[in-house]
Amino acid sequence: MSRNAVSITDLTVAYREKPVLWDVDLEVPEGVLMAIVGPNGAGKSTLIKTILGLVEPAAGRVYIYDAPYAQQRQLVGYVPQRGTVDWDFPTSALDVVMMGLYRQVGWIRRPGRSERKAAMDSLDKVGMADFADRQISQLSGGQQQRVFLARALVQDAQIYFMDEPFAGVDATTERAIVDLLRELRAAGKTVVVVHHDLQTVQEYFDWLMLLNVRRIASGPVGAVFTDENLRRAYGGRIAFLSQVA
Amino acid sequence: MDIGQILHDLLFDYTLRTVALGSATLGLVSGVLGAFAVLRKQSLLGDAISHAALPGVALVFLLTGSKEAVVLVLGAVAAGWVGTLFVTLVTRQTRVKQDAALGIVLSVFFGFGILLLTFIQRLPTASKAGLDKFLFGQAATLVQRDVVTMATLGGIAVLLVVLFWKEFKLLSFDPDFAASLGYPVRALDILLTSLTVIAIVVGLQTVGVVLMSAMLVAPAAAARQWTDRLDVMTILSGAFGALVGLLGAVTSSQVARLPTGPTIVLYMSGIVFISLLLAPRRGLVAQARQRRHQKVQFAVEALLVHLLHHEGCAEEPAESTLDHMGAHMHWRDAFARRVARAAVVNGMVTRANCCFKLTPYGREVARRAMVR
CA–CA separation, A63 vs A70, rounded Å? Predict the structure, then answer.
């Protein structure tokens, strides 16, 4: 049995008394490619944000490789939802990728040549090297998503958390992201992805968590992606789900 | 008035030199901090802060009886800060949204400030006069010591922006990601907002609480039009601010009874207007031109596809006149002529006896357009 990259116990998060996550336990073994799936408002993004310390839990614990997140930060890479930033911000694709290295550069100091090179390599890996100097508003949605991925790659982390990387991207980008996820897994990294497309869960991922405020199920995709579990996660809206499963 | 005399006065006339230096300083500092305020969508926060500073000025005067710039400025900073704190608290703790919270803080603090000012006016003490300059600003009352205070505070603010450049940039673009990297986002936010408070307070005596937020927002909005880089935008924004500060000071010194603050703001509005209109790519003129260009381009492609479609058919001669095309596509004559000219100039068609003929290149373009 391999180590757990992430382990969560009794996690509860509430916004203004309304629970968003309720008593969630989760173990993510090292080296899996995991999807978190659930209906809108199920708390998928909140779960990731809580793991990363962006949201304060009402109760429960999160461990990254057996230690709190604050001590393990350098092991973690993060891809936020694309819609959370203003893409009209006056900056270039390369600049955004270099932000992934700011902590390594340290306070006050400026990123230098080696950081530029690392960022370029990272952009190259997502097929965006030609767009390095482009202002980010001039990129398509898929290209913007790939810039965000490149920024996480440059962090050279052990565990990646990605919030809906497939949302609203073109087919080319979807393909590129899937290839990238597989490369990361092949390199022994752990990847946790908030996903919304039930059709592709079995094809893209090998590990799955079904979430709807509570944890419905988690484990290998084959064992978790069942009619019964999907019905419990999505409630009544299962007419088309049973066709998917 | 001749330029030589103005330059001479700028250097050697105490009043003009002081006013000009003070105005340029306030423009520079508010321009630099304004770039971040605008990008962080906090333009209105500047307005709330400047209005909130008024009761601070009045209270400090009531408590100390001093009209020393340093003392009043400290009161303004404290009150501006408390105002910001209220906005944050109300937004976080209640269901009131930020825009409403800003409105509440702005009007409540400003109302309280006016109340205190009126009270001070009625005081029997001799030193009461002059506080109302904070309302609309009165640059002529600046003395050298005020300018030194402004330059020191503003210098510190700009220096901190330079030092924490990449941290502020990341904070402004993607605070969640910054937090995931372990940056103390709350503390950085407070620092940057505090610097904004300082930038506003630096300008209060010159421009006044009512107009000060314009000096925060306008240079940044103008600068954003001309560049897609944060560093260029920030420098440009500071430069715009300093330039209009200088221009405003000089102009109001030359024209009798022209107040400096409003003149500065008017100059700034002029720069904003020009920037919105004429900036390359983002300007209204450039965008209109680009839309027209795209329209012609699309029409040219339609023309080529039409010609390709009828190429080699019996009706080809009839189908390939400009008149027919215009009627077919509902083009007005002038537009049709422009489309034809564009197609010929780009070597896509040749024209003989009023009939178009596709060139090999034109055929190629037409085929590509059909695939797309």
Answer: 10
